[in-house]
Amino acid sequence: MHDFQWRASFLASVILFGSMSGRLVAEQLQDDSGDKVASVTDDQDPQELSVAPLDHIVYPESRPGWISDPVKQQGDEVTFVVVSGPCETSEESKREVKLMLRATLSTFIQNVTGSFGMDDFYQISDQRIDKDLTQRHYSGELMVGGNAQYEDAVEIRISKVERDRILNAWKNIEVVQRVKKLGVVAFGGFITLVVSSSAFGVAVRRRERKQSSPGDSV
Fold first, then answer.
1. Rounded to an integer, what distance in angstroms lies between the CA atom of residue 142 and that of residue 132?
2. Which of 20, 120, 149, 203 is deepest in the core (most CB within 10 A)?
3. What is the pTM of this model?
4. Helix (H) or strand (E) holding 137
5. For residue 74, with 0-12 CB atoms within 10 Å meaning exposed, 13-18 middle and 19 or more buried, which class applies?
6. Which structural domain, as residue segments, surrounds residue 207?
7. What is the pLDDT of residues 70-111, one digit of tens each?
8. Within the chain, where are the H helices?
């Protein structure tokens, strides 16, 4: 479980702060494979190229351009895109983008508050993600090595209001933690006071008994 969370957080960091690199590589692979096909067709019969290279990616013309947008920040508002796939089935693509979206939001919350390794203090339901955070969504097919695969993309916008909610929730957690620490210190001080008072009372009673012992004997 911890290993999965670590991988998800690592993946989210890559998405959140370097998502463009993977896409650039994919586009470069597409260009390179296109060049290879073009060079081969100059020397060979086109009929021999019935199978596309495994790394050849063909995106449909209907694929929106915002999918390749980098992370944007304007003041306290942040917009980023999470992309799945390519996946063999549409269902797998939807599950993957949902997991990646959760991991990305978790990483964002931890970076905003500095609460690394602790993000469960602020829960966001799927309904809120779809209604309040999702700006745009895309589901489509692409060709990889001549085979049809699927991808999903979600554009998320974190507004100043949402950011303030996250920070306020973290401040409340910090207050609770400080109160707990103060409670432990106060309880420890009370225990020390009780023990000290008891020891002092025992010492006083022993001294009184010693002082009264000579009169009793007379």
1. 29
2. 149
3. 0.59
4. strand 134-144
5. exposed
6. 162-218
7. 899 988 899 999 999 899 999 999 999 999 999 999 999 999
8. 2-43, 90-113, 126-128, 160-217
